Amino acid sequence: MAQFYFGQVVIGSANVSAGAILKLDANNKALRIPSLSVTDKTSITTPIPAPAVGVMLYNTTMDINNDLTPSIAYWGSDNKYHSQATSTATESIISSANIPLLIFTAAITQKPYTVLGTASAGAPTPLTLGAQEILVDKYSGWDLATNQYKVPATGIYVVEFISVMSNAANSGGTSTNRLLNNGSYIGFISGRFVLNRMYTTLISTRSLTVNHLLSFQYSFTAGNYRMESGTVNIYKY
Questions:
Q1: Which residue, 47, 70, 97, sits at the end of a domain?
Q2: What SS3 class is residue 22?
Q3: β-pairing, 56-59 with 35-36?
Q4: Are 133 and 108 in contact (CB under 8 A)?
Q5: How many domains in the chain?
Q6: Burial (CB count within 10 angstroms: exposed 0-12, middle 13-18, buried 19+), residue 165
Q7: pLDDT per residue over 193-223, tens digit each?
Q8: Measured between alpha carbons, how far is 125 from 224 in angstroms, rounded to an integer?
Q9: Tell me: the pLDDT tens digits for 156-200?
Q10: pTM reported for the whole predicted model
Q11: Are residue 91 and residue 152 in the same domain, yes or no?
């Protein structure tokens, strides 16, 4: 059914909207625009000859290198097609460019003292995080109860564990950061003692399997040490 009011067109009802030249009214139907394939974002012949600025279509082609994804697309005033990409498509573009995407970050705050250092047969201290320390957790991977991070998908990851430690006596020694996968060490590195602080940075690039569990530990050779501050960052390719 079509109704005409002062140059306005309404389809589906007689309810005119003053600011609309064309109005579609329906409770269980929607507008269907053409599905076409954009193979060249600057083409003025394919899929539409001489496209006008603002012309819309649903692009069916995935061309990440040219920022084209299956989505609503329009011809812009810069004489190019533009896709309205989803966040998933954007991540695919980032991944194809070999740019790691930050999926987890935590700002470590001061922790309690550990009495025995490793030089006195002390065990490494597991890193614990509170909810307030977690700044980004895209896949909700960190378990606050177990202090482990569940890998969201099989792939290549970059893991950073940066710590600043001290001990009560301000004595020299060696600090160590450790990275574990399913309880087994897959990375560890020692730091240095500078001006009453131990600075340690662990960076590990790994192929990890979905649902594997990452955990972190830190230690110092002298006793009565503690974590003063630090960060944990996890990037996914």
A1: 97
A2: strand
A3: parallel
A4: yes
A5: 3
A6: buried
A7: 787 899 999 999 999 999 999 999 999 999 9
A8: 12
A9: 999 999 999 999 887 778 999 999 999 999 999 999 878 789 999
A10: 0.67
A11: no
